[in-house]
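> example.struct
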């Protein structure tokens, strides 16, 4: 899911940025799902999700703003906040050497039993936990974490920004 959108707001860029900044200040202590983000009069980043909790599937609007026809034209890309697969690739890649060393230690008499157990058992438990959480992350429905339309509705309500066209 990666495409772009153009939005137009009748507010000038500075007024739009100021209004969004004020709204973000109000939402700082808000809990649960809502729109939050950051930006200036030239850049904008908005995310629909829970602050400080990322599942990697939250919709994100990231773009630029410029003056246009007495208002502001927002040209943005629609993406996801992150990708949980990247974390799991790093997680399993980190654990593989420990498992290899642990399994290899069982073929030699030199290492003590506790070393063999620690270098085999702990990484195996961590791999099992990683597999469990990877499966759990795949079961989450995208609708549970919102859609880009939550951000569009927020922009329309707050700064009267409406889509010009989608490409």
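> example.seq
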């Amino acid at each position: 899911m990666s495409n772009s959108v153009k939005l137009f707001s009748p507010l000038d860029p500075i007024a739009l940025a100021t209004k969004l900044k004020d709204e973000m200040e109000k939402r700082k202590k808000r809990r649960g799902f809502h729109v939050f983000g950051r930006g200036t009069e030239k850049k904008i980043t908005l995310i629909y999700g829970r602050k400080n909790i990322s599942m990697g599937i939250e919709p994100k609007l990231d773009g630029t703003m410029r003056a246009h026809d007495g208002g502001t034209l927002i040209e943005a890309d629609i993406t996801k906040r992150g990708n949980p697969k990247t974390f799991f690739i790093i997680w399993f890649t980190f654990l593989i050497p420990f498992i290899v060393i642990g399994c290899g230690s069982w073929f030699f008499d030199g290492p003590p039993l506790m070393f063999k157990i620690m270098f085999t058992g702990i990484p195996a438990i961590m791999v099992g936990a990683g597999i469990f959480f990877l499966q759990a992350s795949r079961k989450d429905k995208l609708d549970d974490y919102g859609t880009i339309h939550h951000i569009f509705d927020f922009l329309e309500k707050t700064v009267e920004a409406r889509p010009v066209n989608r490409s």
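> remarks
The two ends are 13 Å apart (CA to CA).
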